Structures are given as structure tokens and as C-alpha cells.
Amino acid sequence: MTLPRWPRVATIAGREFAWHLRRKSFLLTTFGLPVVGLIVGGATLMVGTGVAVEVGAAVGRALEVDELRRSADAPRIGWVDAADGGADDAAAPAADDAFRAFADVDDAGVALAAGEVDSVFVVPSDYPRRHDVVRLARSWAPPSGDVGAVTDRLRLRVWPDAPPAVTAAMVRPQQRIDVDLVAPPANVAAEAEAAAGADDPSRLMLVLAVGLLLYTTIFTASSYLMQSVTTEKENRVIEVLLTSVSPLELLVGKVTGLGMLGGLQLLIWGGFGLLSLNVGAVFIAAAATIRFGPTVLMLAAVYFLFGYLFYASLMGAVGALVPSFQESGPLTFVVLLPAWLPFFVLELLMRQPNGTLGRALSLFPPTAPLVMMLRLSSGPVPAWEVALSLALLIAGAAAVLALAARVFATNQLLAGEAFNLRRGVAVLMGRS
Amino acid sequence: MIRAAGRVARFEYMRHVRSKQFLGTTFGMPVFMLLIGGFAAWSGSTAQNATAHPWGYVAAGLPPAAADVLAATDLRPFTDVKTAAAALAAGTVGGYAAHDGALGFRVTAWEPLPDGVSDSLSEAIRAEALSAAPPALRAAFDEPATIVYALAAAPDHVRSADTLWATLAVAFAVPLALTLAVLFSTTLLVTAVAEEKANRLIECLATSVAPLALVGGKVVGLGLLALTQLGIWAAGAAAAAVVGLRLGVPGATVAAMPWPTVALAGIWLIGGYLVQAALVVGLGIAIGEPREAQQVAGFASLGLVLPFSLAGLLVFRPASPAAVWLSILPLTSPVAMPIRLLLSAVPLQQAVLSAALLALTAVLALWAAGAVFRWAMLRPPIRWRRRVNAALP
């Protein structure tokens, strides 16, 4: 494979950048989305004044937002218990205010329909000989905390003289576990630090920031890339182009130009973000990431760059393989699937960033950008692992670029046939 | 006309049911979801119980009831606190628990307390508390009541907690199936219509088939296709539950489910699909350009998404005015009414009104789609951007 001629690559990159920059869909997405954000943000800021309050309150009332929240947090319980002589007389372990006694089921039903209580429990007159307690409600929705409160109350009916400690142990045993955290031994200090930082929000922020940047750029730029390739294939412009540039030059030029476009879009969104959001909060968040140090942030940029190159090349190859944009969906899904893998196991990765899975995924090129950032933000990572991960990512990106260029080979671009697996494999093996 | 519509429906069905895209989605998606779901579940469960090192407990001074519970766990027993502390200092255990003599544990650790260890200790505490109760009262003290559930409107018709959860799952699965069917088939529908219009095939078809028959045939054919897909998925899920999972859903729970109401909800499923499909076909024909038509089709299904975003209201306040309106308006009722029907006692007049409005809307939407077809057949694709630009000063 010959190296690309860079002036031609620059010409293609410049043309792709300039052409897509003027597209109405790009302008609409780039400026429309933040403007909507600004409007929504502005509306949020306006809450507290005049009409916004009225409208918000009316919608909230219609959707019964406060009522739903209140009933979830502190359910009001109706209590029909002829044998007990009324709920107010019974000793209850907690939340007595939540109980309201009714003489019979009919009265309780009326209160339930009027929304004065959230549920009604009917205790049989021969309780505890008969064990079934009926819970009446307005819907078949599964119960919330009211069943627990009623169970606790009934437990006192069963054994009224139960010592408070015994009852409390039955109801909330986890509150009787005192934890004394001590300094870890020297030989496990690094592991302990990583495990203790599992819930550190700044770590999560950094990982999500890299993920968001990477995926936004991938999805925006690669969508343009694939659209550009498929459109030029459909209208046969690509055949004219290939008379003067090589497939590799074409691919590298497109990837570079559209990568720059994605970067510009991110900058514009970032600028709008600073304008529309609380500027102070943005700076505080930025300051929080400083504790990771310049090396981690620099590595984040490197991983982001090669991660983009890896996926953009893949998407370019998809564009070259499929006959039209509409038919690219399934293949795009398969190609981008590895990018989502870390999110499926994020909790495990956060708790054991240096475990086997974390190490494996940080070396695997499609997942390396995200997972290595997570590991780097959770503590020191051996330098050789970072170097190996970067080397594999760069090699992976170069290999994918080379494969994509092979797919871009002239005969594929001219063929216009529907994609199938056998054909795809043949192209990648250089047999087509 | 019905015969012609039947032919169109059969053609559309047969054309897509053999396509690689349909077969791949129908059989590949469940396998993929199972793999991803299993992987995520394993990851979550492992993360919850993740400990860098084993944990232990001090056996000395442990009440018998608590000792029995902890002996059955993976926790490592130590004879005394000194041994446990030495293991902790050596880094061989992440932490250990010692009984505090008063229905509780004191945990010493350098790792955060894992959920699995916390659960085991809680179980030991409850066992110890229960052993303090008089033997005659022990069973009742442990489980003082069997709670059964009923609607205030029908207190004698009770269900178990298991049935409640199963009903909730079905109440959302039914409209979710509709939404999936709509999304799947309308994408095919809008692409097919727009492509046939773009390559002028539709003009040839229109010489021998009436517009309404053509539109109706496409809608019915692709609706049956979606039903086939959902049927295969449902059969697969049922087979997996029976063969592999035996998820603890007892036969009594299955028998107690409100199956007649589920069948009744089918009315809203069919009506909802017809309305959405007719809307999408009309838009697809009017717009003509496949990419833009697909975007517009997405907006048409917003009415189905809205009730899902207000699920809390439909579940916990099914008789509130907002929930009632959502279940009556034709664009939202296909999702809202099945949820209300399955989770509450809906007044008969509301159900009848909702079904009648939905049927009327479906008929009108199909008729309108046929009219749009006649109007737009010979028109070029509408370039919305160009029109907007032309309208701007």
C-alpha cells in the first residue's frame, strides 16, 4: 500500500469540511439544538416568575406530580380492624401518623376514592387465627412502603410484649451493622483506593465526558461520512474522483475533513453550553477534573483522536460496502456495537477498574478509549499497560484504515451490488 | 376492492417475510437481547458482590441462630477477633464482622461493605431476633400476615402479590408490543411507499388497484408481518420461561392473570396500529422522499410515546382526569387504555367511547391516506427545505 499524497488528502478534507459546513442539516443541528437548549434553559430560569409558574403549576396539578411523589414517600394508610378497636389505640413501631382508622370498609372506601388515603388494609375480625389481610387500592399497582409498615404493625399485634430491640432487628436489621473503616494494609492500598472511589462522581464525569465526546463525534461525523460515500456512489461522482485520487487518499481526506467538522460542532455546542448553563458550575466541573493531572487529560485527547479514527474508518468501510444509505442500518449497528460494551458493564468496571475485565477491555482497541480513561481516573495504571493499549489502538486504527481502503478499492465503488456477508468477507480478504 | 387489497397485503407480507432484514431482526434480536441482558445482569450482580478479597466473621460469641445462618454463607469463619484482625492486617480479608452482643454486628474493614455481606449479616440478625420470640408465636412474628390485594371497587376479587407484578408486566408489555410493531412496520411501510413513488412503480399499480385498496393492503400486510414477528418473539419468550428459567412464576399466578382483559386490549392494539400506519402511509406518499419520510414517521408515533412517559399517573392514579383523557384521545388511547384496563376498573362508558373514537379515527385515517394517494400520486416529491426557503423572505 502506497502512502497517500498529502496535498490531495488536504484538498479532499477541505472540500468535505466546507461542503458539509454549508449544509442546512448541519447548520440546523449545530445551531438549532443549542437554541432549543437555550430556550428550555431560559424557560427553566423563568420558572419562579409570572406565567411560567402558573403554567407549570397547572400541568403539575393535572398530572398529580406532587401527589404521586407524596404517596411514594409517605403513603397514607387506611386501617379497618374491628378486633383491634381502631388503629389509633395500637402501639406501632413507626409512622403512626400514616395510619387512619375506619369503622368499616365502606367508610374507608369513600376516603380512598376521595384520595384521603392511598390504601386501606382490612384486618379480619378473627386475626391472627385467620391470616389474610386485604389491601384495597385504586389500581392493581404493586404496593410500595405501606405493606412494610402494616407488617410491622401487625407484628406488634402478634407479640405485644416484644422488646423494642427485637422488633427493630426484625424490621431494619441492616441498621444494626456498624462499619468501622480502617486504613488498608500497604500491599493492597492501590486496590482499596480504587474500590473506595467506585462512587466518586468526578471519575464518572470524566468517563462520561470522554464517552460523550467520542460518541457524539463518531455518530455525527461518521453519519456524514457514510452519507457522503453512499451519495457519491449512487450518483457515480466517486468514479470521476477515483480517476485522480487513490481510494486511501479519498478515505483519509473524508475522515479528516469530517472529523474537523465534528470537532467544530463540539466546540460550538460547548460554547453554547457555557452560555446557557451555569457558567460557574461548568468551571467547577472543569476544576474537578484538574485533579487527574495533565498526563491523564493529554492521554484522554490521544485516546479520543485514535478512537475517532478507528470508528470513522469502520463507518467509511460500511459506506463503501452498502449500496445505499437506507441499507446501512444493520451493518452500522454491528460495527458500533463494541462501542457500547463498556456501558453494559460500567458498574463492574467502576468497582473493579483493574480487574481482569477492566484490563482486557482497556487493551481491546474498540473499547480502549473509554475503559482506559476509567482506569486512569481511578488510580495509577502500569505504564506498560498504557503503552500497550495505545499501541494496540493505533495499530487497530491503522489496520481498520487499511481494510477500509481495500473496501474502497475501485471495483467495490463501481459495483453497486447489494451487500452480503460472503461478499464482505471476500472484499476484506482481497479476493473480490 | 377487498380482493385487490387482499392481494396487495399478501404480496407485501410475502415480500418482507422472506427478506434477510426480517429474518435477521426476528431471530437475531432476541438472541442479541438475551446475550446483552445476561451479560449486563452478570456484570451488575458481580459488581454488587464484588470484593477484592474474601470477608470473614468471628465465630466466638455468636448466638446459635446467627451462627447457623453465617455458616451457610461464603464468609470465612475466624475463631476470635485477634485472628480476624491479623488476617485483615495481612490483607487476606477485606473485612470481618464480630457480634456486638446486642442483636447487631460490628464490622471492621478496609473495603466498603459489599451488598452480599450486608445481606448475610442482616439475615443473621433477623434469625437471632426471631429466636428470641416465644416458640408459639415465632411463625406469626416472622410473617404476621398474608397480604392479598383487591380494588376498592371490588373488594372480594383478590389477587396475590405475584399476580400483581405479572399483571403490571403484561399491562406494559401489551402497549410496548404495539409500539414496537408500529415502529417496525411503519418504517417498512414508509420506505416501500416512498420508493415505489420515487421509481414510479406506484403509477403502474394504480392502473389496476384502487388507491384505498392499495393503501389498505399495504397496511394490513405489514401489520400481519409485525404480528408474525411479535408472535415469534412471544413464543420464544414463553419457551425460554418454560424450559430454561422456571422463573418462579407458579401456575396459579398465570391462571389468575386477567387474560380476557388482555384479549380485550387487542382492540386498541389493532386500532392503534391502523391509525398510525394510515398516518405514516399518508405522510410517506405526500413527501415521497424516503429519508425525509422516515423522519416524519418518527414524529407520527409521538402519541404512543407520551403515555409511557406518564406511566406513574396511569399506574397509580388510573382514574385521574389526565389519565382518563389520555385513554380516550385516539392518538394516545392505544397505549393508555390497555394499561388502565389491566390495572384498574375502567367504567364501561369510557371504554366504549375510547374504542369508538379510535375506530372512527382509523377509518378516517385510512380514507384520508387513500385520498392523499390520489392527490399526490402524480406530484413530484415535496422538497420541504426548498419550500421553507422559498417561503422565507
Describe this structure in words.
The complex is a heterodimer of chains A (432) and B (393). With 432 residues, chain A is mostly helical. Chain A contains 20 helices and 5 strands. In chain A, strands 2-1-3-4 form a 4-stranded mixed β-sheet, sandwiched between helices. Residues 86-95 of chain A have low confidence and may be disordered. Chain B has helices at 2-17, 20-48, 64-71, 81-90, 115-131, 138-142, 161-198, 201-206, 211-245, 251-256, 259-287, 290-300, 302-309, 311-316, 321-326, 333-343, 348-376, 384-391, and strands at 55-58, 76-78, 95-99, 105-109, 146-151, 154-159. Chain B is elongated, with a radius of gyration of 30 Å. The mean pLDDT of chain B is 81. Strand 4 of chain A pairs parallel with strand 5 (146-151) of chain B, so a sheet runs across the interface.
